[in-house]
Amino acid sequence: MPILNSAHKMQAEAAAWRQWLHERPEIGFDLTQTEAFVAGKLEAFGCDEIVRGVGGSGIVAVIRGRLGDGPTIGLRSDMDALPMLEDSSIPHASHEPGKMHACGHDGHMAMLLGAAKHLAESRNFAGSVAVVFQPAEEIGQGALAMLGDGLIERFGISRMFGMHNMPGIPAGQFAMRHGAIMAAVAKFTIRIAGRGGHAARPHFTIDPIVTGAQIIDALQTIVARQADPVASLVVTVTRVIAGTAYNIIPETIEIWGTTRALDMDDAAMAQRRIREICAGLATASGAQIEVDYDQAHPVTFNTPEEADFVAGIARDIAGTVDADVRPVMAGEDFSHMLNARPGALVFIGNGDTPGLHHPAYDFDDEIIPAGISYWVRLVEAALTPPARTPEPHR
Prior knowledge:
Blueprint: H1 5-23, H2 32-45, E1 49-54, E2 58-64, E3 72-78, H3 105-122, E4 128-134, H4 142-148, H5 151-155, E5 157-166, E6 174-175, E7 179-182, E8 184-193, E9 197-198, H6 208-226, E10 233-242, E11 248-249, E12 252-261, H7 264-285, E13 288-297, E14 300-302, H8 304-318, E15 321-322, H9 334-340, E16 343-349, H10 368-382
Parallel strand pairs: 3-4, 3-5, 5-16, 6-15
Antiparallel strand pairs: 1-2, 2-4, 6-16, 7-14, 8-12, 8-13, 9-11, 10-12
């Protein structure tokens, strides 16, 4: 099945929605304009039920099919932008300095709004679809907030599906895989308290910088020497905060970092080893060391049945798909929704553009019809009415 005619006809309108949202990026849960815009469109489309404020500023709209009873499936889009300065010359660049839709959530909203418009008009399915607009993905809190507010139970969702654009994949093409498609994400802060003093008299101090350097060096052995060589595991130190002058050994140092894994056992091992390394070096150095460790997201895991299902939908639209795409070590808090219900996340290609979270990134409006068609075909295939058993001849 090619791209829907209605999606082609809607492309300019949906691109205008996307560009309006791009100009007005909002962060985290503070999505006043975004929430009002999305809810207003859903109301205009005639959705059967629109609930705002789910998980703070999330929106869920229910559209009921005309072909009878059936289950409810969920389609999710994220809504929030990033706290970064846009560096582009596009006409619809951000009007908010220090805020930018650099991950394509504006495009995700436009595609799901377009699908909602089509589905509310056609209703060519049995059961119901819940279109879910989620806040605070970039800070890793929105999915859990919506789940904690009863997303699954309140709307009776049986399966969850998500879509994320991906630069580097040809525009409008799709990619997915069985199992882990995006990584479990954790962040850690290591605080080292030593005894400061004059740089010329180190023997009267407990130098937290030296201890910190030993910790940073030792953390590299987790991947190199404790993880299975074929496992996918990352341990990265991203920030060190220490010192005020060239001739002062400071009292404290703070180390920030992140771990990424495609298996939760590897994620647990990394956390355990970070704590053990810090405890051992605290004993060796005499410093006091505290570790704050936040396992923010689990692995984003596509259940096999749903991965095969969405691959078939994507193949019908795009002709070919990459059904065994290489996993991405970035994280996605949609993983929490996939922990709650079976489902799948797919990538839609954004073409040869700057990468996600880059100041010159922009979502490709030309892929909007493919995204709308994917959502519509998915709903119609997932919510096909049961075949009637013919009555016997009398």
